[in-house]
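Encode chain A's predicted structure.
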Amino acid sequence: MKRRDALKTLGIGALAATAGCLGGFEQQSAWRDPPLVDDRPDAVYLPAVTEGMKMYGKTTAGPYGVALTYSYPHRFWTAAGSDLGKTVVEADDSIHLMASLWDAETGTVLPLDAGVSIEILRDGDLVSEEVAYPMLSQQMGMHYGSNYVLDGEGDYEARVHVGGTSLSRTGSFAGRFESAETATFEFAFDTDDLYDVELRRLGDEAGSRGAVPAMEMMGVPTGKAPAVSDLPGRHLGRQTSADALFDAFVVDDGSRFGVDGAYLYVSARTPHNEFVLPMMGVRATLERDGTTTLDGARLARTLDPDLSYHYGTGVEAVDSGDALTLSVDVPPQVARHDGYETAFMAFEPMRFEV
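Encoded structure for chain A:
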């Protein structure tokens, strides 16, 4: 008897009370109705259940590297402005598909504003098409994903459509990533393969502040922000707000970034795994000797091969004794897997003394 037939015969069981890997009908229960930690902190935390993933393939499309991976259908949380909504697993959901997207030349992960969608066909006929949400996972980092309905087991074609971007781009990224591209994958859906994806319950660790380590994903970048020591310019300091890390820098000669004067930028990242935190609204105020030299300026969301995804603007200068205040008026407009949904939403202003 195949595992899926055994599951149909046994029905859905309760989760085991002990930590560790799950199997059989406990496994199906875990992803259909996963436990959620009680009294979650307003911060990154270890979820009750973690899940693995498998890969359908990796390819290139124009300037993009694209990988298509899969796991169980699962709950996730979407951001709409300052509101967070829960997307539950529906009865007919078959699979959670994830597209990872990066610059094929540099390996830089690309959180694009124009969006990604996944179209699924069988024998040339459309089976499913959904927007793939920009999404953060403690194990996969930055990717695009959603739950999809399939028409039973068998062979399928997935088309990952990548829109061009209107984000600011600097350095060798200037003028790139403007055209739409499509990456195509052939895959066979087999529920035995799906049920072989590891699920693990964390037991007493669940709910504590921390993060599950990022996966090694067969050469697929996860979107880890550059090390602070590798970023150019003067480091003005690090502040934390809503459990996100903000490192502020100034490059005194901003010509490399297409600005007169200096270039002020912020690298925002998650704690623990230090994934880039994209799609925020960040403003900066700069004061010098009681005079405001920059008044709540919106920092541009920008892609750069050395700085990765960051927020930046041109300024006349940043001098010793200046005070920089950062505020976030739009939280990251990315969906989140369990463990990230309570963080990165309610930000307090951050002050840097130069």
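The longest strand covers residues 125-137.
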